[in-house]
Amino acid sequence: MAKQAKKGFEKGLNLVKFGDYKAVVAELYTALGINNRTSFAAYKRGAIELKVAQATAIEGVFAKYGISKTQIWG
To answer: pLDDT tens for residues 30-50?
Structure first.
């Protein structure tokens, strides 16, 4: 069975505490190397496929806020 591609990270973003949301989003922009809401929304939904380095960076951002890898993708 082939390895399943990661989907968007909206599931993980929904677990972020309200007070941390803006900081998390800013860090995700940096991790993804983007600077606009349209690209962010596409990555969040999984419409744009992530590179391995981007996925690793995203997992690092969420880990910083106490959200595990298994809770992010979906």
So the answer is: 999 999 999 999 999 999 999
Whether 1 is covered by a domain: the verdict is no
Q: How far is CA 40 from CA 1, 14, 49, 57, 58, in A?
A: 30, 15, 12, 14, 12
pTM score of the predicted model = 0.89
The verdict on residue 2 lying in a domain is: no
| Domain presence at residue 20 | yes
> Which of 20, 33, 19 is CA-nearest to residue 62?
20
- What's the pLDDT score for residue 7? 83
What's the CA gap between 57 and 54, in Å, rounded?
5
